[in-house]
Amino acid sequence: MEEKLKMYKTKAGEKLAVAAGRLTEQEASFDSERAEYEREIKHLRLLLREKDEVIGAMSGDKKRLENDLENVWQAATRDNQRMQDTVRKSKRKLKEHRSLQGAVFGSDSDNELLNLSSDGEY
């Protein structure tokens, strides 16, 4: 009986040693996987930080571009308004000039001669 007990203890010890070996292997495997995952997380965080910086820079560029476009729009609007005012004034002066020509000269042929510039255009 003692020998059987000894044999069971030996077998149990062997099984425990095998199980402990497997646990040690699993633990090493888990440690290796954990280290790999931590490296991957570190890499992904670095990529995220870089992308955040790029997005921040692009956002600043976008704001500057929007401001520049707004300034160009306002300048173009002012120039357009100024040109429209100039055209209106020129039309008024031209009407006044034509009405004076009609009063001074009675015919349209004289009017056409006065409207010609030196290069033959109106």
Describe this structure in words.
It is a single chain. The protein has helices spanning 2-104, 108-115. Mean pLDDT is 86; it is low at 116-122. The relative contact order is 0.03. With 122 residues, the chain is an all-alpha fold.
Provide key terms for this protein:
single chain; mainly alpha; 122 residues
State which percent range the strand residues make up: under 5%
Structural class: mainly alpha
- Helix amount: over 70%
What's the alpha carbon Rg, rounded to whole Å? 47 Å
What's the arrangement of secondary structure elements?
Blueprint: H1 2-104, H2 108-115
Task: Produce a short descriptive summary.
With 122 residues, the chain is mainly alpha-helical.
